[in-house]
Design brief:
Blueprint lengths: L1 H26 L6 H9 L13 H9 L11 H12 L19 E5 L9 H5 L5 E2 L7 E2 L19 E5 L21
Helix pairs in contact: 2-3, 2-4
Length: 186
């Protein structure tokens, strides 16, 4: 009989707390801006901080509040174009590249495998799971997945990770439009 009353009391307490939480969810609901959510979906979600904000959501909020749309190196030109379409703003070159003759060189992480001790700190730091490896075994980077966010370099205790330019391949090669001479017609 004591077990029955104990379970009944526990059930009543759970019901009361459930009702209070349900009321609080309705009463204190925070409405978010749908444009912030749409911009956040376009961003690469690497949470790398290269834009100057602690993550993609704060950067999306800053864009809605008037910040530039060209501060996301992992997203690159494709993300800038999508953001321009979404916000109605002008497409600008990636921040930090104004006045340069060409686009910035995309870099990816490279692990010197003979120096890797298999600590897994770089795997834990990688926001896009571009590093393969296991504890006490060497690690390697999946080049096609690496966004070049540079977050894996700092936690490495043996400093065996370098950021190297992406090798030019037929599928990554692009015309350097600024280097083509243009004749002026008179």
């Amino acid at each position: 009989m004591i077990l029955f009353y104990s379970l009944l009391a526990l059930g009543i307490i759970a019901l009361i707390f459930g009702a209070v939480l349900g009321y609080a969810q309705i009463k204190f609901k925070v409405e978010s801006d749908p444009l912030v959510d749409q911009i956040d979906e376009v961003l690469p979600q690497t949470q790398c901080g290269q834009c100057g904000y602690p993550g993609c959501k704060p950067y999306a909020e800053a864009i809605v509040n008037g910040d530039d749309i060209n501060k996301c190196p992992p997203g690159g030109d494709a993300t800038i174009k999508k953001l321009a379409d979404l916000t109605g703003l002008e497409v600008k070159p990636l921040a930090g590249t104004e006045g340069e003759a060409s686009e910035p060189v995309k870099k990816i992480a490279y692990i010197r495998e003979d120096e890797c001790i298999g600590c897994t700190k770089c795997i834990q730091a990688c926001p896009v799971d571009a590093i393969l490896g296991a504890a006490k075994h060497m690690h390697t980077v999946i080049e096609d997945e690496c966004t070049g966010c540079d977050l894996c370099v700092e936690p490495c205790p043996v400093d065996c990770i370098d950021m190297l330019p992406v090798a030019e391949k037929p599928d990554t090669w692009r015309w350097q439009l600024n280097s083509i001479p243009v004749k002026q017609v008179q």
